[in-house]
Amino acid sequence: MRKFFTLFAAMSTMTLMAQTPINIIIGSKTFTATLADSETGEAFAALLPLSVTMNELNGNEKYHYLSSSLPTAAYQPGAIHAGDLMLYGNNCVVLFYETFNSSYSYTRLGAIDNPSGLVSALGFGNVSVRFESGQTTDLTPNVQSDKVPSTKVLRDGQLFINHNGTMYNVQGGKVNAE
After folding, report:
1. Which of 9, 35, 95, 150 fits 163 for a cystine, CB–CB 3.0-4.6 Å?
2. Tens digit of pLDDT for each residue in 88-102?
């Protein structure tokens, strides 16, 4: 069991955001997006699940102002791509559905993996959008010293480990399985 906690502690120091997908649900259509491996991506993931009304702007984007600020690392991306999920300022989430050039500065939140069908899902005008934690397919690390493999569990944007039927948080403490 000691090897399990050593492995677990090492895993908790690794950055997991690059492998953390989220679902963006618009009407009956679900898009998988990958969050940026950044403090901003991590802070956004902590807000999930999140249901918002996104407003239309310029025929190429939908936006929503959050009630709180997120960390920023703004830059001028130049080219904006359909499916880009960006932060304008420190609290305006922007989902782009067209590709174009821009001189504005944004902080990258992530991007939709396959934006095919995004334009038709978003439609014209304001739209209800739900952001929620996604599932990954590579959530099963094996602990060499044990016969039963451990599994990672994402619950409300937090990572837990299920080992031999007991749930552990990233600090190695037991938690309720719920």
Report:
1. 150
2. 999 999 999 999 999
